Every structure is written in structure tokens, then in C-alpha cells.
Amino acid sequence: MPRFSRSALLTLLLAVSAVTCFGQSTTGTVSMSATVSKFVEINSGGAVTLTGNSGGGVITDGITNSPLAVSINLGELGPSNTNPFVTALVPLKLRSNAAYVLSMTATVTSSGTTTNRIGAADVGFGLGTINRTGVGVNAGADTNATSGDPTLAANGSVNATSGRYEFTAVRSSLSSFSAATTALSGPFIMNAVPRSNANGLTVPAFFAVKPQFFENGTTTISVTFTVTAP
Amino acid sequence: MRLRLFTFVILLAAAQTVAAQALDISSGGQPTITGAVGGSVTGSANVQNDLVVTINFGEVSPLNTNAVVKVVVPIALRSNQPYQVAVTASAISNANTQALQSSDVGFGLQNLDLLGGAGKVCNQSTHIIRSPFNNDPANTATVGTNGRVSYASSLANISGSTVILSGPELSKNNSAKRQNSDGYSFDAIFVLTPQFFAAGVSSATLVFTISPGPNVPC
After folding, report:
1. pLDDT one-digit tens code per residue, B16-68
2. Chain A to chain B Cβ contacts (< 8 Å)
3. Among residues A155, A148, A139, which one has the least CA distance to residue A188?
4. pTM for the model
5. What is the nearest CA distance from B118 to chain A, expressed in angstroms?
6. What residues in B contact A19, CB-CB < 8 Å?
7. What is the spatial distance between Cα B75 and Cα A210, in angstroms, rounded to a whole number?
8. Are B109 and B186 in contact (CB under 8 A)?
9. Which of B171, B149, B50 lies closest to B104 in space, CA to CA?
10. Of B14, B62, B176, which is closest to A23 when you measure between CB atoms?
């Protein structure tokens, strides 16, 4: 057989093999990846409860699972209000897929000019009973950095020297939150459930003022809650 | 003598070529992704190219407020004999049960259809999507008693090499080259519902393999 013909045949053979190798395949691959970032949120846990007030009222109420944006008029806080305390209870709802920290900052500004005006120390604060219930909620143990309901006898009393009522327990007034300060922390709140699951951790935030002979005027209290996943 | 030897070699090569072209899997078209936040899918739109698809579901924590992240991967098949398609999957290895698991990725097959005129229509046998994969996971997602989303079929239903599809021959011709119309295609559908998963990055690789299947008539 002529050498030319053998070369041609070999070339043809290689060409056929090449077509076979590059034209067909019996396998294919699908590679996949997904990312889960830390997620935390705070929303309203429901309607505000205002008690002991004289005048005033809830201006903007909380709506469950909606962004927390509550506005309250505590009413009269002078001695004409004879109730022991004016108390606002603001339900909070937290959700996370990671350990969380709830911190708070508060500012109190008063039109008064003397030390008898209402100040941050005159506004009691605390977080109440923490509730982790419902389908999809992780049964973790939380750490309440506050002393709970500020109106409890154990959390405050009249100063024997000044006569002014004081919230004396740990983190029991807004004076402890002039800068961002932890109020609550704990492990992840939600198991692997979709966002449409409406459950979460609920906790009431108490704000209380004992009516006293404060300097007359108006006072504005602003509180910001922030939840993070360190 | 030499001429006979070369003729024999050529015939052998031709025989190998016919055998190789009998079963083929390739891209079935452009993959698509919907509902993703920071996600993507890459793959060839050309049905003559190999099946090499990379899916990035993106963010699947509640930061993604879409109902689901859905990826549709068209896959083309060609054969001149009964076939079956099997799939293997590397496990999603998260020890934390609240992290993403294989069962959280819905996986189903839909829309098995002719690629075109050179696909073979058999009247004596049907193409069968094996149970439980004959569904669109986006439509079969349900919330379980524990609040977690599950699907009629998921990556957790893949154990070893799992046959997902089989049937009679797919192609009219015996071309050694892929053509645009000489087989069938189906959609492999992947669905992930954003949930309060534990944070992290998860990955898996699926390998689809076509091989001779149950000997069914055409």
C-alpha cells in the first residue's frame, strides 16, 4: 500500500476519533452554592398598654409584625396625677437566625431648667417576661440585662435623703442607656423556617414614671432599640 | 495484508464511534434563575455544548424576601437505544440541622419534549420521569409541622446513583455530531425557599449520566 494512502487513512482515523471525543458525552455537571447571612430583625409585638395616666394616650400604636414606631403621650406627671405610676408597656418582637444582642439608647429632654425637671433617671425601664413559643421558634435561654418591671418594689424606692423617687435596680432607668447598652441577648431565635412564619421572641418593654413634684414643663423621651448579630 | 489491517482498524474506529454516539447528554438551552438576591446561573445556551452549569442561589436567609429562588436547567439527551438518566449528588454537609440541608433544595423534572424534528417519536413505550421527581418543586413546596419548607422531591431523594428518567431511543439519526434537533430535552428544576437557616455557605455538585436503560420497544 502506498505510503500516502496509509497516511491518509491514519488521518481519517484520527479525525473520526476526534469527532467521537468532542461531539458526545455521557455525563454533565451542575454545581450549586448558596449563602445564608446572619439575619436579625425587631418589630412591634402588638398594641401598647398605657396605665395610670391622667390625660395623654397612645398616639401611634404598635401593630404586630410591623416596624416598631410607637408614639405615646404619658399625660400629666405632676402631683395632680394621683396614680402611683404612669406605665407604658410596649411589646417587642425579635427574630434571628443567629445569636443576637438587643441594645437601647435613650434621650430625655425637658423644658425645665432646674434639677427638679424630669430627667433620664426619672423614667423607669425594664424588659418583662421573655416568650419563645410557637412553631419554628428555638427554645433558647435569654439573658435579660435589665431588672424587669421598674414599678416593682424591689426595683425602686423613695430616696430617704432627697425624697425623690429613684429607680435603683440594675439598668432600671433610662439613665443607664445614654449610650447604646445591652438590654437583652440570647441564642438564635428562629429555626429554619420561612420569613412568612410570624412567630418569634416577644418581650414587653416597660417605661414608667412616678408622678412627683417635678418642675413644670414638657418632656420628650426618645428611645431607639437596635438588634444585632455579633 | 497491510491494506486489510488498516481497513480493519478503520472499521473498529467506526464501530467505536457509533457506540459513543448512541448515548449523549448536553446543554438543553439557557439556564434561568428567578427570585435570587445576589445569585446567578451560568451555562451554555447552545444545545451542542456540554452540560456544565454553575448555580449560585445567592442569599437564602430572610434577607431575600422572595418566596423562592428557582433555577431551571434545560438538559438535552440523544440516543439510538433505550436509555436512562441517573444523577449523583455530593451531600450538603452541614452538621447543624438548622443550616441548609439537602432536603431544603427542591429538585424535580418537567417538560420532557422533542428537541426538534430529528428526535424520535416512539409509540410503544413512553419516557418515564421516575418517582418522586416528576414535579416542579416551586409548586409542591409545603410547610411541615415544624415550620420548615419541604418539597415533593429534593436533593435528599438522591442516594448514590439514582435513576431519574428512562425511556426508548431518542434520536432518529446516528450522527456522530450533536445536532440541534436530534433528541429530547427536559428541565431540571431546583428550588430553594429563603428561610431562617443558620448562617454559612453551602455547596453541592450533581452529575447527570446517561447510560443504556431498560430494553423497551420503540
Report:
1. 333 334 899 999 999 999 999 999 999 999 999 999 999 999 999 999 999 99
2. 216
3. A139
4. 0.88
5. 16
6. 17, 176-177
7. 72
8. yes
9. B149
10. B176
